[in-house]
């Protein structure tokens, strides 16, 4: 294992070789299986990117259709195992997702990545429906994964502009190097455990606000600020109170997260299609104010917008309730988790990092 000492201590320990994605924090570049994220998001279907991560190549012709069919079957199978009562018990969508996914049998003879990707979409949508007082909707295998997710979640036939925006989002978050949830999933996979257990571990890690739980709070922040002119004083007051600005900063990026730009562009397209929520101008003003205030407070540590910042505004414009944001993140990231689980299992190697003992010496 290589090590790289950062200001946080022994961060950046290399625990795996991967062909799946690379994050260049200095230049703000994300490459997914040989493709810049800017080229994939908004231009390639979620199914095609799933196939890219699971097989190593973008599918052509019949292969693209086959991926769409296998994901649809994954949704149908997941729906058959849905325990409605279990979902409704949970106030938090990530808790519901964890519990529902954990009920899946470890082996049912069907393609594990498609089954798990189908399951996360179906359970996230069913939980959001239950929360709004509705019954879960069965998947429609004739629809694309993104369109069906939106339909199952909102109960409405989704319009193409919203589907395109959601699909761009799901593709944007599909994989991101050795982030915390991917690492959690890989650690479980490295023990020889099953893919369901690994994905449940990923869901648990993604739930936290320092990882996938930030977009809801970003929207709360925009609501609290209300108008662009109030952005700077509001941000200053938050920092003075010692609170973090949600959607800003990243452990790896030293420049703006490239996914923020991709999602900002998807949001602008949605506004052009006349479907957006009018929050783009406010979001841009808050981002500018936050970047400036953070630069003044931490001149040596660049802190810029991360993926969660525009996720919040985009998913809101798509028509999702903020409580469904983190489960929707999981609906995209599960594709990457599955790819990492397979890659890790193929090595047959246990991940066993070390800790540094700083406790008391034993009594003589
Ligand atoms: N708002 C205010 N201050 C922030 C900040 C933010 N969003 N992000 C980092 N800082 C501060 C830290 O508190 C630290 O200050 P200190 O030295 O006085 O304690 C300093 O900047 C350096 O932070 P650093 O150690 O480089 O950050 P990190 O790598 O530990 O944290 C995050 C990375 C993502 C956890 C952090 O930026 C954060 O909490 N962001 C908000 C939550 C969020 O958007 N999460 C989604 C991530 S994709």
TrEMBL record:
Pathway where it operates: Carbohydrate metabolism; tricarboxylic acid cycle; isocitrate from oxaloacetate: step 1/2
Catalyzed chemical reaction(s): oxaloacetate + acetyl-CoA + H2O = citrate + CoA + H(+)
GO terms, biological process: carbohydrate metabolic process; tricarboxylic acid cycle
Keywords: Transferase
InterPro entries, sorted: Citrate_synth-like_lrg_a-sub (IPR016142), Citrate_synth-like_sm_a-sub (IPR016143), Citrate_synthase (IPR002020), Citrate_synthase_bac-typ (IPR024176), Citrate_synthase_sf (IPR036969)
UniProt GO molecular function: citrate synthase activity
Active-site residues per Swiss-Prot or TrEMBL entry: 250, 308
Annotated Gene Ontology cellular component terms: cytosol
Similarity comment text for this entry: Belongs to the citrate synthase family.
Protein name in UniProt: Citrate synthase
Organism: Nannocystis exedens
Highest classification ranks of the organism: Bacteria, Pseudomonadati, Myxococcota, Polyangia, Nannocystales
């Amino acid at each position: 294992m290589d090590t790289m000492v950062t200001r946080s201590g022994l961060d950046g320990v290399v625990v795996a070789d991967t062909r799946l994605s690379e994050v260049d924090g200095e230049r703000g570049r994300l490459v997914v299986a040989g493709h810049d994220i800017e080229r994939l998001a908004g231009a390639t279907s979620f199914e095609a990117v799933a196939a890219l991560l699971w097989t190593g190549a973008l599918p052509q012709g019949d292969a693209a259709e086959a991926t769409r069919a296998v994901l649809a079957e994954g949704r149908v199978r997941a729906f058959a195992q849905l325990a409605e009562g279990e979902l409704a018990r949970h106030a938090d969508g990530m808790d519901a997702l964890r519990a529902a996914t954990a009920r899946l049998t470890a082996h049912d003879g069907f393609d594990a990545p498609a089954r798990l990707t189908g399951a996360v979409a179906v359970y996230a949508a069913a939980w959001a429906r239950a929360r709004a007082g509705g019954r879960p909707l069965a998947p429609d295998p004739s629809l694309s994964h993104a369109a069906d997710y939106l339909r199952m979640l909102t109960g409405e036939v989704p319009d193409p502009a919203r589907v395109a925006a959601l699909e761009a989002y799901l593709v944007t978050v599909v994989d991101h190097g050795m982030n915390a949830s991917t690492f959690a999933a890989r650690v479980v996979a490295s023990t020889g455990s099953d893919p369901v257990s690994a994905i449940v571990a990923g869901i648990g890690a993604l739930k936290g606000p320092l990882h996938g739980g930030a977009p809801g709070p970003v929207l709360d922040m925009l609501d609290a600020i209300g108008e662009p002119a109030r952005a700077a004083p509001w941000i200053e007051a938050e920092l003075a109170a010692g609170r973090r600005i949600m959607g800003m900063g990243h452990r790896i990026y030293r420049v703006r997260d490239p996914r923020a730009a991709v999602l900002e562009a998807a949001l602008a397209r949605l506004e052009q299609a006349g479907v957006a929520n009018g929050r783009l101008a406010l979001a841009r003003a808050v981002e500018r104010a936050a970047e400036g205030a953070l630069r003044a407070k931490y001149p040596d540590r660049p802190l810029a917008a991360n993926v969660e910042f525009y996720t919040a505004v985009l998913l809101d414009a798509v028509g999702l309730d903020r409580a469904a944001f983190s489960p929707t993140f999981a609906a995209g990231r599960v594709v990457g988790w599955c790819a990492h689980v397979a890659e890790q299992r193929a090595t047959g190697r246990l991940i066993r990092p070390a800790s540094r003992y700083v406790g008391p010496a034993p009594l003589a």
